[in-house]
């Protein structure tokens, strides 16, 4: 009998995280379906299965439910598996990693599939402390296609501009005039993408207008492997998308990054951005060495088998640890709020 899995989907960034995993599940002859939370757009294709209601998920009775956000419904059947929506780059400038959102234990997940040393070490410490979940270093499901895809050579210098949504950190409102100037003056292509939680419509409309009026600008709703391939350089602030781009062995220019380092060409002033991009296009040797070391620290596995390791980890948990760990905290108030939001009391 085939195993069944569910993808718990809250935001559009979940689709490229889950789809490589879906491919690996199907390759094993198993089944998978999607549950999409209210408010999240349905971007499924015709061959992808959706479970419309909570009762549908219960009836589907999966072996495991994957979550890439901070929350998953505790009352759903199956092993709750955290696969993350980014890397732990500590974009808010945390000096204590245990205070970072990436490492916050909220009591929802049975197992965490970490990406590399930067996340595994801390989660292993938390595993020993709480004894309510297990940690497996598998690598991130989203990046498997990065290591299976063919290299792309740009015909024209191309910049991928991406931002975080965090107020006070996002560069989107600050760099719009600078990017507009460079679009008009430089012989570069631009690809623009923004975090789905960025809700400043006035700023987003300015970038959309830029794409509408200039042939060398493309506005991207959901960044893909192809978008990373087609860019030579990334311009960013403090988003974990920096790490994804570096996995293609490409340089990143940042504006006021909260954790600057030798792996970045970081700028503090908008007047420095143009020159930093010019330097990045030359791919300085020492910079590229730092890029490789930094990316390996966060994503240790480059064989394109992260999804297979995640499924193997689920099997190991199911056989060796399910029902044998300490019980999770009751979290009665959080659980009540979740059920009340859904009006689901079964």
Brief synopsis:
With 346 residues, the protein is an alpha/beta fold. The chain has eleven helices and twelve strands.
SSE succession:
EHEHEEEHEEHEHEHEHEEHHHH
Molecular shape? globular
CATH architecture of the largest domain: 3-Layer(aba) Sandwich
The CATH topology of the largest domain is given as Rossmann fold
Structural class: alpha/beta
Percent range for helical residues?
A: 25-40%
Number of helices: 11
Q: Main sheet, how many strands, which sense, barrel?
A: 6 strands, parallel
Indicate the low-confidence ranges by residue numbers.
none
What do you see in this structure?
It is built from 11 helices and 12 strands. By secondary structure, it is α/β, with parallel strands linked by helices. The protein folds into 2 domains: 180 residues, 3-Layer(aba) Sandwich (Rossmann fold); 150 residues, Glycogen Phosphorylase B (Rossmann fold, 3-Layer(aba) Sandwich). A 6-stranded parallel β-sheet has the order 2-1-3-4-5-6, sandwiched between helices. A 6-stranded parallel β-sheet has the order 9-8-7-10-11-12. Strand 8, helix 5 and strand 9 form a beta-alpha-beta unit. Helix 1 packs across helix 10 and helix 4 runs parallel beside helix 5. The radius of gyration is 21 Å and the shape is globular. The mean pLDDT is 93. One of its GO terms (molecular function) is CDP-glycerol glycerophosphotransferase activity. Pfam families: Glyphos_transf. One of its GO terms (cellular component) is membrane. Keywords: Transferase.
